[in-house]
Predict the structure.
Amino acid sequence: MVCKKIYLSPSNQVGNMYAVGNVSEKEVMEEIANHLREILINEYGCDTLIAPSSLGVRERPQDALDNNAEVYLALHSNAGGGRTASGAIAFYHPNDEDSRRLAANIVAELNKISQYPSNRIDPVRSGMEVFNNQGYYEIRVPNELGLIPVLVEIDFHDNPLTARYLIDNTYEIAQALARAIDSSFNLRNKRRYIMSFTRRKGKNRP
Ligand SMILES: [Zn+2]
C-alpha cells in the first residue's frame, strides 16, 4: 500500500502559554510537527508537509488540497481542565471511517507513552458537534475537500505536570503519532521496502 500524503497543521496560537517553561502552544506544536515530518519521511518514506506558519487555519485546508495531501492532521495542546486534567483527545469527522480510526489510534498511542494517566471520559469524539454543530473548521472543511481530518489535543498545557511532559517529550510524542498514522494506513516502512526491493532486483538479475 502506498503511503498517504500527510499535511500537518500545528497550532499557531502564540498566546496560549504553558503552565511551565515559558513556551507557547505554537512553539511546542511546531516542534512536534517538525519531528513528525522527519520521522514520517525518514522512517516511513511518507511524503509529509507542514502548513506554513504564515497561513491561518482558514487557509490551510485549501493549501493541503493544493499540495495533494490526503490526510489533514491539526496538532494542538489543551486547556480548561482546571490544571488537573490529563490525557489526549482526538476529534474526527463522523462521515469518515478513516478519520475516526486515525483519531482512535492517535489517542491509544499517546496515552501509552504518557506517565500521567488520562482522566478523560470521552477521548475520541466527533469534531462536528462543537460550535452549534458547525464543527471545527479544521475538521469540517478538510472533509468537504475530500481529505481525512483529525484534530488532536495531545495533552493539557494548563496542567503543570502535563505541560512539562509535552515540553520534554516532543520527539516521543511525534513517534507515537507516526505509529498511529502507520497503524491506521499500513504505511510501508522505508527500510523494509528498500530491503525487499533489493531482494527482488537481485533475484531478477541474470
Ligand atoms: Zn490549540
Summary: The chain is about 45% helix and 15% strand. The chain has one domain: 6-204.
